[in-house]
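User: Can you recover a sequence for this backbone? Please restate the input before giving your answer.

Assistant: Of course. Working from this structure:
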């Protein structure tokens, strides 16, 4: 008995390969293009939402601002009561100004010593706003 492989034996061992239909072949490319386009659109929208929701990081020199206020108040001859009222007005104006900036700009405000580089410094903007609020509060009295 010969165990040689004949053409007939090989064809029985190997399963016949079915050909894809022409209709299926025509659909594969457009479906792949649509799938890739949807993935790219999804990625673009996700990136946009991440950037839109990310807060802006800014720096504020709290120590310099408080020191400047203390230096300016020390130059005036104020009673203890006047000094207390002025200090309360300053701290309230500073707090309101910082919260206002944070809300308007969706910002994360860090104190200057904790920032090495690369963020916007808003110290001058906040100091101007505090001065404006203190003048307005003084005018109301």
């Amino acid at each position: 008995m010969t165990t040689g492989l004949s053409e007939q034996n090989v064809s029985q061992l190997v399963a016949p390969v079915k050909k894809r239909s022409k209709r299926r072949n025509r659909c594969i490319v457009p479906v792949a293009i649509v799938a890739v386009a949807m993935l790219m659109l999804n990625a673009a929208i996700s990136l946009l939402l991440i950037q839109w929701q990310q807060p802006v990081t800014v720096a504020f020199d709290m120590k310099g601002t408080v020191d400047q206020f203390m230096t300016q108040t020390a130059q005036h001859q104020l009673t203890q009561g006047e000094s207390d009222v002025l200090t309360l007005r300053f701290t309230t104006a500073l707090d309101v100004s910082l919260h206002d900036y944070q809300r308007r700009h969706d910002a994360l405000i860090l104190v200057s010593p904790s920032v090495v580089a690369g963020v916007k410094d808003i110290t001058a903007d906040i100091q101007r706003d505090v001065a404006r609020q203190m003048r307005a509060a003084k005018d109301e009295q």
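That completes the design. The mean pLDDT is 86.
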